[in-house]
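User: Structure please.
Assistant: Input sequence and predicted structure:
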Amino acid sequence: MKTEPEKYGWEKLVGDGETVWDGVRNHLASNNMRAMEVGDLAFLYHSVSGKEIVGIVEVSRTGLTDPTDPDGKWATVMIKPVRALERPVTLAEVKADSALAGIQLVRLSRLSVAEITTAEWEHILALAAN
């Protein structure tokens, strides 16, 4: 899940404890949120400045309509922070790693809520631990 840290970064999420992931206006990203279930985990990625995966969030509520959508057609979820990564994993590291060659974060770089495979998840966690 991508966010600009100046608008709503990891620290703000930790301070708030939970938030609705609103403002997404892309069909694939919205569908990715529709597919989420309570308890699913996701990475929080700081885009624009930082360009790094900084933490893990948990989906705390699903099946929501984005409250910023007057037409009621865009889906959203509530998320809460789980933990910061041991160290952030930069976009440059992701791009340079052949094990992450197909990751949507790079392949569909404008997508704000991207799908990630189990292998990609585990690899990123390993990178964060080094």
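The chain has a mean pLDDT of 95.
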